[in-house]
Specification:
Number of strands of chain A: 11
Oligomer: heterodimer
Distance between the termini of chain A: 37 Å
Radius of gyration of chain B: 14 Å
Distance between the termini of chain B: 41 Å
Strand content of chain B: over 45%
Helix content of chain B: under 10%
Helix content of chain A: under 10%
Number of helices of chain A: 0
Number of helices of chain B: 0
Order of helices and strands of chain A: EEEEEEEEEEE
Structural class of chain A: mainly beta
Chain lengths: 114, 112
């Protein structure tokens, strides 16, 4: 079975703090993704990566950055957290030549910024 | 810009009834995905529909794709409480697209 894990299920941070969300997959997937999920808005793509050290902006990259130093790990960074970044963050990965093959999701990190 | 619309966004139904969730999308696509999300849990892949006329069935759920109408349906037959969840469709935007575009989800409650 594909396993995508995220470092924290729940996280509470203060405005202005630097926040790291970690995602690890164990299936040697090429592609990894970060989404945020908000009520009434569905899932929105923040960033994705199709290879080590490669990254592409998604629909809402502002206020975020990412890092992919190893194939199995994809980190989302909030340089200076703000209250409007309170959300559920979901990591996903998939395998194949097409970025749009079935994505497998991690359990999510619910981030609250006070 | 690809837009994906699901309806209804909220559905409360009784066990034993049939119902259909609709997913409309705005640009040409040959790939559509259905996911399920239980409260507090992550998304689980249900179906991948890869061509016009594709139909997939798993238990009481059946998904279909009409690429000409840009429409997918998720049909629930004789609903049971265990199917209560939020269902998302997601569409592949094609060459040059940045991955999948998700609908807002349909929150389904099935009451005994």
């Amino acid at each position: 079975d594909v396993k995508v894990t995220q470092s924290s299920r729940y996280l509470v941070k203060r405005t202005g703090e630097k926040v790291f969300l970690e995602c690890v997959q164990d299936m040697d997937h090429e592609n990894m993704f970060w989404y945020r999920q908000d009520p009434g808005l569905g899932l929105r793509l923040i960033y994705f990566s199709y290879d080590v050290k490669m990254k592409e902006k998604g629909d809402i990259p502002e206020g975020y950055s990412v890092s992919r130093e190893k194939k199995e790990r994809f980190s989302l960074i909030l340089e200076s957290a703000s209250t409007n970044q309170t959300s559920m963050y979901l990591c996903a990965s998939n395998y194949g030549t097409g970025i749009t093959d079935t994505q497998y999701f991690g359990p999510g990190t619910r981030l609250t910024v006070l | 810009e690809l837009k994906v619309e699901q309806n209804p966004l909220f559905l409360s139904m009784q066990e034993g009834k049939n119902y259909t969730i609709y997913c409309n999308y705005s640009t040409t696509s040959d790939r559509l995905y259905w996911y399920r999300q239980d409260p507090g849990k992550s998304l689980e892949s249900l179906f991948v529909l890869l061509s016009n006329g594709a139909v997939k069935q798993e238990g009481r759920l059946m998904a279909s794709l009409d690429t000409k109408a840009r429409l997918s349906t998720l049909h629930i037959t004789a609903a049971v409480h265990d199917l209560s969840a939020t269902y998302f469709c997601a569409v592949d935007g094609g060459v040059g697209a940045d991955g999948l575009t998700f609908g807002k989800g349909t929150h389904l409650i099935i009451q005994p």
